[in-house]
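User: Assemble these into one structure.

Assistant: Restating your components, then the assembled model:
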Amino acid sequence: MSLETMQELLIHQLKDIYSAEQMLLKALPKMQEKASTEELATAFGAHLVETKNQVARLDQALKILGEQPGGVKCKAMEGLIAEAQEILDEDGNETVIDAGIIAAAQRVEHYEIAGYGCARTFARRVGRNDVANLLQETLDEEGNADKILTDIAETWVNAQAARA
Ligand code: ZN
Ligand code: FE
Ligand code: FE
Ligand code: FE
């Protein structure tokens, strides 16, 4: 694909994130199921609900730009989810596994934060504040999800895992 304008780059990035979010819709329930710490399972459930709204926002953003999802696969998220799956496939100490799941999930959130942050900035640059505002809403949710994971690790999981 040829990239002549920043709007074309923005569209490519939105399609990439769309692909990533689709993979997460499938991965988050698995992470929720494997999590032993109740707070962690609850957090994944809540983020799944947010993720569905994020997909709707991306649909809306692409529509505003006269586009629709499809044609781009996010290879990075495929890899991040494959790494998360390695943890999910392990047996062992439940809390140690929870700490590993959190580490994998935070990699995912940080990737999303980078993607939405850049796309938001590109949208502003091309004068699409309507798209930028949609992306900012999601960016705030991703930041919050990351913070919640840190809080759960620090409050519940890490101390117990370190005793194993
Ligand atoms: Zn891409
Ligand atoms: Fe997301
Ligand atoms: Fe990607
Ligand atoms: Fe997320």
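DSSP finds five helices and no strands in the chain.
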